[in-house]
Amino acid sequence: MPPFAPLGLDHVVLWVRDLEAARRWYTSVLGCTPGFDYPDIAMTHLWFGSILIGLWDASDPRADYARPQVSGGTNVDHLGLATGPFDLTALRAHLAAHGVAIEKELVQGGARGVGQSVYFRDPWGNRFELKGPGRHAAPG
Which is it for the CA torsion 93, 50, 117, 18, positive or negative? Predict the structure, then answer.
C-alpha cells in the first residue's frame, strides 16, 4: 500500500491555443470560475466544482519547457466531469448555442453509479464527458 490515502482528483491540465479564448470558452460553456493565473508559464487554472482545470497555452513559447514529447497521438481519451442533475434537452440547447457538437449521448456507469453521459470536444480537440448523477448504484 502507498504511504498516502487516495482522496480524488485535484486538477487536470490541458493544452489549448489562445489562453484568453480558452478562458472564455471554459467559463461560458462549462461554467468554470477563475482560479489561479501563472503568466510566467502561460497557464491559468479555472475551477470546475471542487477540481481545477489547468489551461496551458501551446502557442506561447513560455510553455515550451513543459510541452509533451509524445509523437503520434495523445495520452488521454477524455475527462469525465461530474455534474448535478441536468435536463438533457436544455443541455443540448446550451451546447448548440455555443457551437459545440455532441459526439455521443448514452447512459453508462461512472464513479457515482449509472447515469446520463454527454460527450463533446472543446475548440482545441480535448474531449469531455459531462456525467450526471447515478440513477442506479455502481456495480461492486
Answer: positive
